[in-house]
Amino acid sequence: MKLSSSIGLATALLLSAASAQTYQRLGTCPTLGCVFPPDQADFLAGQFFDIRLEVHAPVNGSEANGLLPDENFTFSIAKKGKKETLAAKYFNVAEPKLERWNFTWYEDLFARDAKTPSLVNVTAKAYRRVALFEAGEYTATLTYNNGSKTVANWLVRDLETVRKTKNVVLFIGDGMTTNMITAARLIGHKTINGKYQSKMQMDKFPVLGHQMTHSIDSFITDSANSATALYTGHKSTVNCLGVYADSSKDPFDDPKVETIAEMFHRLTGGAVGIVSTAFIADATPAALTAHTRDRSQYGAVIDSFLYGITNYTWTNWTGPDVLFGGGAEQFYSPALGGKTYQNKDWYEEFQKNGYEVHWNKTSLATAKSTDKALGIFTVSNMAKWLDRNVYTTNLNQSLSPSGDKTAALDQPGLKEMTLKAVDILHKRSGNKGFFLMSEAASIDKMMHVLDYDRALGELLELDDTIKATIAKLKDLDVLKDTLVLVTADHGHGFDVMGSVDTTYLAAQNVDRKKRDAVGTYQNSGLSQYQNTGNLTYTDSNFPSNWSPRYTLFQGLMADPDRRENWSVRKDGPRLPATPVDDTKKEYVANPNDGAGGIKLDGTLPVGDDQGVHSLTDVPVFAMGPCQELFGGVYSSIDIFFGMAECLGLARGNKSGY
Amino acid sequence: MKLSSSIGLATALLLSAASAQTYQRLGTCPTLGCVFPPDQADFLAGQFFDIRLEVHAPVNGSEANGLLPDENFTFSIAKKGKKETLAAKYFNVAEPKLERWNFTWYEDLFARDAKTPSLVNVTAKAYRRVALFEAGEYTATLTYNNGSKTVANWLVRDLETVRKTKNVVLFIGDGMTTNMITAARLIGHKTINGKYQSKMQMDKFPVLGHQMTHSIDSFITDSANSATALYTGHKSTVNCLGVYADSSKDPFDDPKVETIAEMFHRLTGGAVGIVSTAFIADATPAALTAHTRDRSQYGAVIDSFLYGITNYTWTNWTGPDVLFGGGAEQFYSPALGGKTYQNKDWYEEFQKNGYEVHWNKTSLATAKSTDKALGIFTVSNMAKWLDRNVYTTNLNQSLSPSGDKTAALDQPGLKEMTLKAVDILHKRSGNKGFFLMSEAASIDKMMHVLDYDRALGELLELDDTIKATIAKLKDLDVLKDTLVLVTADHGHGFDVMGSVDTTYLAAQNVDRKKRDAVGTYQNSGLSQYQNTGNLTYTDSNFPSNWSPRYTLFQGLMADPDRRENWSVRKDGPRLPATPVDDTKKEYVANPNDGAGGIKLDGTLPVGDDQGVHSLTDVPVFAMGPCQELFGGVYSSIDIFFGMAECLGLARGNKSGY
User: Fold this and answer.
1) B141 touching A, CB under 8 A?
2) B21 CA to chain A: closest CA distance, Å?
3) d(CA A269, CA A429)
4) Keywords for this entry (chains A, B) (predicted)?
5) Whole-angstrom distance, CA of residue B49 vs CA of residue B52
6) Residues of B numbered 212-251 whose beta carbons fall under 8 angstroms of chain A's beta carbons: which are they?
7) Number of Cβ atoms within 10 Å of the Cβ of B657
8) B196 at the A interface (CB within 8 A)?
9) CA distance A201 to A181
10) How many CB pairs under 8 A join A and B?
11) What is the least distance, in Å, from the CA of B395 to any CA of chain A?
């Protein structure tokens, strides 16, 4: 998913560079002494991580105390019941050098309006690539300012170390909530007298859970820090990939935590696959290998996919076996307009490292299962299911992955990419097993632009992909050896309240009268997406009519200004709001969106042009070895610990490190 | 829950009397021959039900065919693989007499505006109180109009008949969704660095499921037909309690289905308890014993609680052992202003039948566990947790259950009522076991009026009640013998998207600038409901501050016109919209609600003054015997079949009938 484009790259960088959190100096550090990983952190035994310590000296603002930043702070570790030891000795590493910087932040919106930031001077240190092996409780204590203490309680979880699954397939429906699954079921599956005549594949999973997505320092999360929680077992800050956010300006020096992909690769030599319908440097795929506080460092993300982290000593990484998605602009040569890391042609770079490169569905179908594969099928995000299958003229854009400005007409869907990924991973991993992450990214992207129809199409494609993947795993006789998980990283506040008679709505001239087109309760009637129309798809559950007279009365709780006509956008994804002038600081309803609909004021700040994420717990569907670990309600980080335990990745001692 | 009050009683009666469904002649009957129970119905072996047959002869409109309604239709039953038998013979009952009526409906909103209803003449019959005993598939065939056939496929589920649980406690959070649970957790429980320091009781349940609430003839449901699905295993139409909706004018002649309370009482002699924070004749409690197409027949509902169904031969019923809730106006004498069934004093009526009557918390505490108990604690719905515990001056209203117009100051909460109910049911049921339904009704009622704070307070009270009930069952040493279920009957499209700086919002003069008070993503910050304030509640998780500076940016997807300030209403529940004139046909934002907030146009029809239900699957939490039946995703009716199977209520033959 993407943060509101109205924030823009420049602002995002400013935010992260200065850690200028409105309301919070540094969310994970309520006192003036900061320890990362902070209090309450959980660890997998043997998981690499960095430690960052900071001492803050506020110069002005409500916390100013006249002190200079402490240069003599100390940091020690103690396992419960054992003696406290200075960290350098505990980890047997050299004492790190002292670092210094400063940053500013706004205490509240009044301070922002008055342009009166608070300045903080900082002293800091970082211990790199350490690990805890023995399960149990630890205290990590920072002592600063002549005796002030910040104590972080850490827990190395006591997990079984016997590997129980050969493979893990993790499906992520980005932004997918239970509410959306319910709506997708309603348009994709037929009911008779309230009984569904077919089931979603997700509905057939034996174990259901809910995960709490609360971020480390805010209750709403984005895809970057939620992916970090799912892949590392460590919650983090919005925009963070595989790191805790410190307050320094450098987006690459933040304290890292090792990911499930990195650990699985390092400890088992198994194969890793990364598949997404987003541009492949986007947060959810990126978080498997990238470590940066700033998710918009797309070039560095591509570099990390292939070479891992090279600016610090870190875990050994030799690239995924499969990398499929969009985002060609981070691959093709700058000579063709590419925006690539170190100005390289990254197609060549991957080829040099033994990857077959694919640019379209036809080529993908011929991919050898024995070779590593890079598949990049379009500039930017991949085409949506609805545009690939129903409104196909929308594919006529200059988005060829080659960079030659022709159209990317022959794009695979999530299903084709995922099935090919399974083939390659199965073949290449042999007895070592594989880890595959497959993301339906545009559920989120289309919810952001209030394009409910396209979002639900993406969700149905995800479900169809899960169904086909399970069939494929069965064919390969590895279904019983594969933990299959389906979950999301956060929600959008979406639901369906009834139906809209679009014919009646269009026939009214006044907005207040148009609202009478809405039917609630009994007058919601039955879904017309299955009972009318003539679209058919082989062996799949998708609507037979995307524009019936009676559509869904659906929407989000929080919106920008927009116009709603509750009808499918046949000419491509919605653009609900447009800027009032070139400064792009204020948005109003797009006059070219939602034709004939009701004009509505949003509740979001007028600088927002799209919807935002929501708080709701998101569902987890589990099937296969260890499925019982994923029932009930738990934290997002428990997904990591469940997968790691099932793969037997915990290491109680240093042997083999 | 309550349908929009703007529809009102008169309209509701008109709707149900005429079965005038906009868009649908009769949703469960797409052809002109109607069978109830309709196609796809599932049955518990031995469950009583009525059969209604109708033949429709449309006089005008799109379906008019010039035919008179058939008087000679026939109806037969065939078990799969066996021969078809006329129903009267199959059930060994007399052939019912032919009935006739007519009704009108509107084909769409244009017809409604033009006042051009379609008229339908009807011939009909009803077979009363029959049952199917043998598990398996059946076809029920109506033959009419010289050979047209309507075939209903029925299934008598093949369930285990060994009783596995002594008791069932079914908690219903009316209108409660996963999104609301997430929000309640955020304000009621403290986090440190993204880790909750305490858990909701619901979060501790071992098994999680989702139930699909889709109604029989519309995809949005109300509390009446959803309670019917949960209690009978039969989906039905909005407003229906324990019946399928036929097209006749009489709201009491619709075909009935036996409820879990009725079957449990009839077959085991066990004790039944009904507890709700609503007026006790409201849909969710009512559906345990009432059988009417019109949920607003409150007087008849009270009669059914005590005497069961008496206008037709039906299952034997001698009243619940416990009946606790609000709604005194259906009990006290019409001389005091009561609106009672047959003008009786129903307190006296219950006392005559051996019930102790309680009017307040103090009296309830002294209730003998050996006696049947009626507890009615207020006129209308019970006071909300927030008003009973924080803003207590709001209790000063003329709502005494005695009818003497004093205030109902000493009201128990859901917890006190439920714990006392368990005491009585446990004592009175002996070895026979008990069935208790306990409803947190005002989660829904407060969501309807957009009073998110009160709704979340009710949800936290439900969770606190569940926690205390489990402790009580443990104390009584029957926890292991009790299936505890927590679920909902439908949703509201609610979520939380961030925080609102209410100080900043109040300081702005322009609505578009007020929107800047909203903080999303990282700027949502942390919940201030636990980190500030000084309210404390013994051994419970509720906010310590209900009006922090930074409140939740929360709301519904579909609203009436309203003004939002995202602040707790300290002077009692919200009233978001008010009528523009005495006709009450159009509502606008209430100028006295949401002081200083943002004025927002709704998306609901302007005749609506409150929010509406939503589509989303709702959660099911299960603990105890048979908990494994409630994992994964399934239909709302599966809750009934799961409870019935666990109680061993299926009867494969007629012995004992």
Assistant:
1) no
2) 7
3) 8
4) Magnesium, Metal-binding, Signal, Zinc
5) 10
6) 212, 214-222, 229, 235, 237-239
7) 11
8) yes
9) 11
10) 368
11) 32
Catalytic choice (B4, B16, B118, B223): B223
User: Helix B178-188 to helix B452-475 angle, to the nearest 10 degrees?
Assistant: 80
Residue A593 φ/ψ, nearest 5 degrees: -125, 140
B236 is a catalytic site residue: no
Classify strands A136-144 and A74-79 as parallel, antiparallel or unpaired: antiparallel
Q: Using a CB-CB distance cutoff of 8 angstroms, which residues of chain B are in contact with residue A209?
A: 208
A99 is in an annotated binding site: no
Contact partners, residue B594, CB within 8 Å, separation at least 6: B562, B563, B564, B565, B574, B576
All domains of chain A, ordered by start, with CATH? 8-156 (2.60.40), 167-493+622-646 (3.40.720.10), 497-556+559-600 (no CATH)
Kindly report, residue by residue over A562-613, the tens digit of the pLDDT: 999 999 999 999 999 999 999 989 999 999 999 999 999 999 999 999 999 9
Omega within 30 of 0 (cis) for the link into B37? yes
The two tokens of residue B654 are 């007629």
Q: How many CA atoms lie within 13 A of A505 on its CB side?
A: 27
Report the candidate in A1, A218, A518 with the shortest Cα–Cα distance to residue B523.
Answer: A218
Residues listed for chain A: 657
Residue of A nearest to B187 (CA): A219
The reply to whether A67 touches chain B by the CB within 8 Å rule is no
**DSSP 8-state class, residue A321:** S
Q: Peptide bond before A37: cis, by omega within 30 degrees of 0?
A: yes
The string of pLDDT tens digits covering residues A173-224 is 999 999 999 999 999 999 999 999 999 999 999 999 999 999 999 999 999 9
Indicate whether B118 pLDDT > 50: yes
Q: Check: CB of residue B418 under 8 Å from CB of residue B275.
A: yes
Taking an 8 Å cut-off on Cβ atoms, the answer to whether A498 and B185 are in contact is no
pLDDT (0 to 100) of residue A22: 62
pLDDT of residue A281: 98
| Catalytic sites of A, residue numbers | 223
Say whether pLDDT at B21 is over 50: no
- Locate B284 and state its tokens: 């969710």
For residues B144 and B141, what is the distance between their CA atoms, to the nearest angstrom?
Answer: 10
B439 is in an annotated binding site: yes
Is residue A541 within 8 A of residue B544, CB to CB? The reply is no
